[in-house]
Amino acid sequence: MKPCPWQTVLITTGVVELLLSISYLVDSIFAYDTCYVVPCYEGPGLEELWKINKGVGLSGVFSAVFVIIFSAFSLWLIPRSSLKDAPLMFGFFVGMSFILSLVLIEQMCIWGAEWNLIDNLDKLSDFSSVFSQSGRHMKMRDGLLETVQRMVYMLAGLLLVQVSIVIVLALWHREILADLLWLRGGSYTRVVSMADDVTGVIV
Fold first, then answer.
1. CA dihedral for 86, 87, 90, 93, sign (positive or negative)
2. What pLDDT, in 10s, does the model give residues 150-169?
3. Which of 29, 47, 55, 164 has an alpha carbon 20 to 30 Å from 191's alpha carbon atom?
4. In whole angstroms, what is the distance from residue 175 CA to residue 13 CA?
5. Pair 27, 151: CB distance under 8 Å
6. What is the pTM of this model?
7. Are 33 and 54 in contact (CB under 8 A)?
């Protein structure tokens, strides 16, 4: 059966979200516990100050896995939706989109701070004293700044996807219920009242 327009939009956003989150996961794994410079600073405290904190790296990995699970479940749920699942579908997408939006904003702040720090270090001269330790000369790690920048852009894209999902549900909620009712073999005359009922359940 040909998917309804709202299903096509939600499936498309789900696929985009899945691809972005997988890419974000790969970059998060790369950035985990990575030193800003090569070779790494040595010594208690210094080795932790001059690399991406393990907690920051893990937060990126876990948030990426969280989004992957959400997008995968969304792609599984949308084609199987029925009228009795309408409150679940609306509540799931609106609630999870709100939660994920907060997670994504928090991740953007974290990796934005890393971007700012690495960018400032990258602007220093290669002969700056901060890149010397006990006779060893260090340099900024190639590709790290670009990786962090890419992660922030992907987070912004994922946030945009979450906002678009809520907009689709808000604008098309009556059409969605109408399509679900039609798939079940019901009458369109009940759509308006059912839309109000489902909206009331969500609120």
1. negative
2. 999 999 999 999 888 888 77
3. 164
4. 18
5. yes
6. 0.79
7. yes
